[in-house]
Amino acid sequence: MTEEGHLAPVVYLHASARRAARQAGLVRAGQAGRSAPIGQAGPNDQASEKLPGGRTAPGTGDDAEAARLALQQLARHDASRRELADMLRRRGIGGQVAEQEVARLAAEGLADDGRLARNLVETRFARKGLGLAGMRRELGRRGIADDDIDAALAGLSDEDDRGRALEVARARATHLGQADRRSARRRLGAYLARRGYSGLVVESVVREVLSDSDRDDATFGGEGGGAGAPEPA
Questions:
Q1: In 3-state terms, what secondary structure has residue 37?
Q2: Residue-by-residue pLDDT tens, the chain, 233 positions
Q3: Pick from 174, 27, 179: which is nearest to 108 by CA?
Q4: What share of the chain is helix, strand, coil (3-state, %, to 5)?
Q5: DSSP letter string over 182-218?
Q6: Euclidean distance between the first and final Cα of the chain, in Å?
Q7: Which site from 6, 8, 173, 221 is most exposed, i.e. has the minimal number of CB atoms within 10 Å?
Q8: Which residues contact 124 (CB under 8 A, 6 or more apart)?
């Protein structure tokens, strides 16, 4: 309930942030399996401004607005601490208030760069076929610290990296159209390099994929290929 007597909007968190919030005791289970942040009334609850451990929720003014904006962002998708702070500043929140709000969310487990890095590596980056260097580059671009990046990538070996590159290259080879072997090698190598595979991996995988053909100067059509076929990015 706001000071004017209106009901405060309920903000639902992104799945991974919602799980962390439940574990921290920051949300109560709502209807249809959803979770409403503590401090907002459910159908049979009185609104509370207390957080676990006797801490108080953000009050009014910039603090409350920063909390509202940050939770809305997390409701849409996970964001790194830097992304949250940058978003708050763009929305007119002062730098100190923005940093304090991000630190509060991090302390409650709602803004967790380590969890975000692991989720990205296991889901989105795997679907995009990124190599280890590409994953590291993307995580760094989102402002995630080196320690969290190292931890997220710790379970991936060079052998795993080559296996992904081989899978990606074989799929890509079907889109090379009527390229001769030299052009196919160049285009396939550039494609893998853009996805963050090392030079050694690229050279080895390109050689293996193109040698799968029995023709020395073959053209590379196949399913989805052919002259003039569109080449996915």
A1: strand
A2: 444 444 444 344 455 555 544 444 444 444 334 443 433 433 333 333 444 444 445 555 788 999 999 999 999 888 999 999 999 999 999 999 999 999 999 999 999 999 999 999 998 898 899 999 999 999 999 999 999 999 999 999 999 999 999 999 999 988 887 778 889 999 999 999 999 999 999 999 999 998 865 444 444 444 334 333 444 45
A3: 27
A4: 55, 5, 40
A5: HHHHHHHHHHHHHTT--HHHHHHHHHHHHHTSS-TT-
A6: 49
A7: 6
A8: none
12 vs 91: CA distance, rounded Å: 20
CA distance 217 to 20: 56
Residues in the chain: 233
